[in-house]
Specification:
By secondary structure, this protein is α+β, with helices and mostly antiparallel strands. It has helices at residues 2-30, 67-85, 120-134, 139-146, and strands spanning 35-42, 45-51, 90-96, 101-106. Strands 1-2-4-3 form a 4-stranded antiparallel sheet, with helices on one face. Helix content is 48%, strand content 19%. A hairpin with a 4-residue loop joins strand 3 (90-96) and strand 4 (101-106).
Length: 149
């Protein structure tokens, strides 16, 4: 019973951390520090890529620095920030390249499954179960991976 309570507490901490990243991303969008820089399209879903000078890249601007293009991009940034603040979309990952990085956001309204906090121990146990069902793994290897617990 105590272990279940500890897992719930850990999940709350992870969820709180994820929300902090989302709120920070929304603030960066609203202040113009980052902006939408791309769209990743996958079968049945898509995600938006956010980046800019703060992350080592360039700010997306309208063609030939047109005011209409810049205004459209600013409106998109505001909409994305509102969706992040209202917990409709979530930060789903990061993309790191040699000169910059970006964060990806998506959610169920874009066809992406809901992001739920997971505990590393749950992932480890799931991984261990799948691997041992399909492969013969020497026990000493599993001991080394677990850190001799």
């Amino acid at each position: 019973m105590n272990e279940a309570c500890e897992f719930d507490t850990n999940k709350k901490v992870i969820h709180s951390f994820q929300r902090s990243i989302e709120i920070t991303s929304a603030i960066l969008l609203l202040t113009g520090q980052i902006t939408i820089i791309g769209v990743f399209v996958r079968p049945g879903r898509f995600s938006l890529s956010l980046g800019g000078p703060l992350f080592g890249g360039h700010r997306l601007e309208g063609k030939d620095h047109s005011q209409e293009g810049n205004l459209f991009i600013d409106i998109l940034d505001i909409i994305i920030a509102i969706l992040l603040i209202n917990d409709v979309i979530h930060v789903t990952g990061t993309f790191v390249s040699s000169g910059d990085f970006s964060i990806n956001v998506s959610g169920p309204i874009f066809g992406y499954p809901e992001v739920l906090p997971a505990l590393p121990i749950e992932d480890y146990n799931f991984f261990n179960k799948i691997v041992t069902q399909h492969y013969i793994v020497p026990p000493e290897l599993l001991t080394n991976i677990k850190g001799n617990e």
